């Protein structure tokens, strides 16, 4: 004997889960898309060398350079975590973490030296703690059953890491902006100086190329901010959607709801198939 | 200490006004060089002062997110300092005649340096020093 109601309940359960998995995959794709930004904070090349040349070295440059390796690791942790999410959400069989790119990224996402004081220590402490939590999310077998708990446990960490990245972007962008203004003023000063025309032209060309590099760097930072903020927001939305999943108590409640649903459908089906009693004689 | 984003904005605005003051002083020196009121070597000195002031302003951006820098926001001195610096910026922007441009550019460097110190190491003494520098520069400008 088959129960059409049971089949329908199973279909409803699958349909309810399907959007969540699709959301996880979309969110993970946003995180994986952060991969090209690993070197976003490698500022030393243009910026620091220019400020050295013009005799107003940036005292923060050694600190910025010292933190660069840590920022590489932070980005790898974020991308690795996103890859782990994608692997967990995969509809195919359980994934072996050893063969997954997420594991490789997680292994190289360890923070090295301590942070410089370029940023507020509270912010960098949050980033360090966040990276550790992201790595915990990466480690383990990639099964869908882990998704709810992982997303819930990792959300605060991801927000803290995002905040650190945003703060560093703001800091570097302002430094870049300051440099752009300085270059603009230097060019206008060169133009009115009594230097030979060839010198003026040469200096203006050189300065313009530095300004162009700085502009490219600023655009790159804006892209990074947009991308990391989008990932963090999508992840936060995901956490709200999967609230309760993976929690044994919540899962039990979910099962009760499904059982109650089945019971209602079965009773309705019984009612529908039971012949009505003959009407009482008038 | 958590970062107060409103406080952060105020410190960043102060740094921005300091940049504007430095640039306004440079524009005066540029005008004087263009009209041959000053020689190239005098302008070079003014430009050096400008570079130093911009460097100090840049340092303020770095310090702005730090807990120490945020303390200054909760003092009455910041409001006065911000007002004074903005007034200076406006005064410099409308200044047509200057006898000693180097005294202005030097005043700007010392002012921005003092503001940067007040932001980095906030205390009554550093705030007072920055305010004094602002008043001195205003005297130089307005005569």
Detailed description of the structure:
The complex is a heterodimer of chains A (282) and B (143). With 282 residues, chain A is mainly α. Chain A has one domain. Helix content of chain A is 74%, strand content 0%. In chain A, helix 1 runs antiparallel to helix 7, helix 3 packs antiparallel against helix 4 and helix 5 crosses helix 6. With 143 residues, chain B is mainly α. Chain B has a single domain, classed as Four Helix Bundle (Hemerythrin (Met), subunit A) (Up-down Bundle). Chain B has 6 helices and no strands. In chain B, helix 1 runs antiparallel to helix 5. Classes of the chains: A mainly alpha (282), B mainly alpha (143). Chains A and B meet through helix 6 of A and helix 1 and helix 2 of B.
- Structural category of chain A is mainly alpha
Helix segment count of chain A?
Answer: 8
Structural class of chain B: mainly alpha
Largest sheet of chain A: none
Give the biggest beta sheet of chain B.
Answer: none
How far apart the termini of chain B lie comes to 43 Å
Mean pLDDT across residues of chain B:
84
When the domains of chain A are counted, the total is: 1
Q: What is the CATH topology classification name of chain B?
A: Four Helix Bundle (Hemerythrin (Met), subunit A)
